Amino acid sequence: MKKIFKLLGFVVLIVSTAVIFTGCAGEKQITLKVYNWGDYIDESVIDSFEKEYNIKVIYDTFATNEDMYVKLKAGGDSYDVAFPSDYMIQRMIKEDMIQKIDMNNIPNYRYIDDRFKNLAYDPNNEYSVPYMWGTVGIIYNKTMVDDVVDSWDILWNEKYAKKILMMNSQRDSIGITLKKLGYSLNTKNINELEEAKNELIKQKPLVLAYVGDEVKDKMVAGEAAMAVVYSGDAVFMKRENPDLEYVIPKEGSNLWFDAMVIPKASQHKKEAELFINYMCDPEIAFKNADYIGYSTPHTEAKKMLDPDLINDKTAYPEDEDLDHCQVFEDLADSLKDYDRIWTEVKAN
Amino acid sequence: MVTRLMKKFYILIIFAFLYAPIFVLIVFSFNNSKSRGNWNGFTLKWYMELLRDRQILSALYYTVIIAIISSLIATIIGTMAAIGIHNMSKWKQSLIMNITYLPVLNPDIVTGISLMILFIFMKMQLGFFSMLLAHITFNIPYVILSVMPKLKQLNKHLYEAALDLGATPWYAFKRVIIPEIMPGIITGALLAFTLSLDDFVISFFTTGSGVSNLSITIYSMARRGINPEINALSSLMFISVLSLLIIINKRMSKDNSVKENA
User: Fold this and answer.
1) What CATH number does the domain located at A2-132+256-316 have?
2) Which of A162, A181, A217, A320 could form a disulfide with B37 if both were Cys (CB 3.0 to 4.6 A apart)?
């Protein structure tokens, strides 16, 4: 017993000194704190950035926009670069949580496709630089569906009862229903929202399950005929199971962005801009797009990708497919209506 | 005969339910595809990538370090507290024990948020130290609660006898009290260690940039899907715990047989 304690004490001693020393090492070096989605970067990029600029990067990850928001809002932490999505950027601008980026320090910004500049969430493009984008659509199994899939209506077709997977996410599920009805997916009109609610309740008996990330495994394994998914995941699923096909319904859908911003509390704005610029370097942007598999807004990086992927309409749809697509906007006070409607749908 | 078969079958089912998920997890750590819907052939690449993944490795490092340090400190503080509480008058003892129960019954999220607010209020930088403090805090009651019963069982005349035989109070404490309550201390320490190892909620709120444990890192992968490197890591952890248990059991049975022979 005594031996065990001695050993334990020894381990703790070594470990704690190791912690203290690693804590002190490189005091002079600037550290840059980056906050990104989990598994959303090619990690070798961080190493090469550190080497090139002699800046230490502390890299943390979050699971949802809301998690990130809470962490930044609480103020216990100060991150220098964060990667929120469109509507969250709008909200953070409104709440004065992020600062303007000096685009003169981001020369690589010129590589970003003009189509993805000056969007509703950041109208003058002063606060954010797009990182990845995608759409929401229907993925279906060609061996199980014989109708033409080009409309959200197919998700309401009784022929596919208990073979439909919906997203377990209120904004996305209510959003596509609004689109099906021909409304804006940012609507704050309570009548339109009530109508969407009734549609969703009507659809509920046909739905096999409301799912999150496990949709990928289920569709690849052929457990359902169709599902509502993000385009980036659709690319992955199609590669795993060639019977799958992805469409953006003709009524339009959600076009989403994850972009880089600099939180107000950042004390290293210069270095943060350096980092953002580095992420927009063609070679680096290519590495990330290749690793993640989502669509890149970077024109040069896109050219370097596997030709099969560039020509894949799933990842890089035609401009006209995007015509009716909308970017999420901050709902402000209507958020509670969405909350209530989703609860009623799920509880029904 | 039939009942015996039934008994065996019942045990088999229980073990199947307990271990099937772990078995599936280990099998898929060798899957060539990132999807769990497809088996694309055997590979060791997730193990190789795990060794290179600095985010997962740093999360593992912080998880283990914090579990070791926090359980150790909580065990020391908790044991001392338990001995102190044990020697209090009746009503004081029940008062303090109720206060000890409170954090155990309190939902984790309340503990987590209140600690975070406290740290921010004290202008403390959230990070390694704040997370360590939080873990020590929620571990202490569990240690007290597992040491207390052992103290209650203790024959209080043992200590007096030691003093009568010429032991100093410290020596008697070290050689009489501590060995008697040692099983309780070890249970408390192990409990604290495991609780710290897989805590998510409290860690999430009390950690700061650059310090994240395994549960936070795995949770953050929710949108993109859990990376099979996590399967590889879990398999390695499972194997190491299993072999540790086997070694300890072997040694214990050896010790026992030595004692029996003597």
Assistant:
1) 3.40.190.10
2) A217
- pLDDT for residue B259: 62
Torsions phi, psi for B175 (to 5 deg): -95, -15
Domain span including residue B202: 80-89+100-234
Question: Does A2-132+256-316 match A134-254+321-347 in CATH topology?
Answer: yes
> Has residue A141 got a pLDDT over 90?
yes
Q: What is the pLDDT of residue A195?
A: 94
B217 part of contact set with chain A, CB < 8 Å: yes
Task: Specify the CATH number for the domain of residue B124.
Answer: 1.10.3720.10
A64 Cβ under 8 Å from any chain B Cβ: yes
Q: Which residue has the tokens 């703790």?
A: A12
Count of the separate structural domains present in chain B: 1
What is the predicted ipTM? 0.72
Chain B closest-CA separation from residue A63 CA (Å): 4
The CATH architecture one would assign to domain A134-254+321-347 is 3-Layer(aba) Sandwich (3.40)
Q: What are the residue ranges spanned by the domains of chain A? A: 2-132+256-316, 134-254+321-347
Examine residue B20 and state whether it is found in any structural domain, yes or no.
Answer: no
Find chain A residues with C-beta within 8 A of B72's C-beta: 8, 12
Q: Which of A20, A31, A60 to mutate to test the interface with B (most CBs of B within 10 A)?
A: A60
pLDDT at A137: 93
| Inside any domain, residue B66 | no
Query: Which chain B residue has its CA at the smallest distance from A292's CA?
Result: B224
For residue B70, tell me if it sits in a domain: no
Q: Is residue B127 part of a domain?
A: yes
- Whole-prediction pTM: 0.80
The reply to whether residue A40 touches residue B225, judged by beta carbons under 8 angstroms, is: no
Is the Cβ pair A221, B72 closer than 8 Å?
no
Residue A132 has pLDDT above 90, yes or no: yes
Q: What is the 3-state secondary structure of chain A?
A: CHHHHHHHHHHHHHHHHHHHHHHHCCCCCCEEEEEEECCCCCHHHHHHHHHHHCCEEEEEEECCHHHHHHHHHHCCCCCCEECCEHHHHHHHHHCCCEECCCHHHCHHHHHECHHHCCCCCCCCCCCCEEEEEEEEEEEEECCCCCCCCCCHHHHHCHHHCCCEEEECCHHHHHHHHHHHCCCCCCCCCHHHHHHHHHHHHHHHHHEEEEECCCHHHHHHCCCCCEEEEEHHHHHHHHHHCCCEEEECCCCCCEEEEEEEEEECCCCCHHHHHHHHHHHCCHHHHHHHHHHHCCECCEHHHHHHCCHHHHCCCCCCCCHHHHCCCECCCCCHHHHHHHHHHHHHHHHC
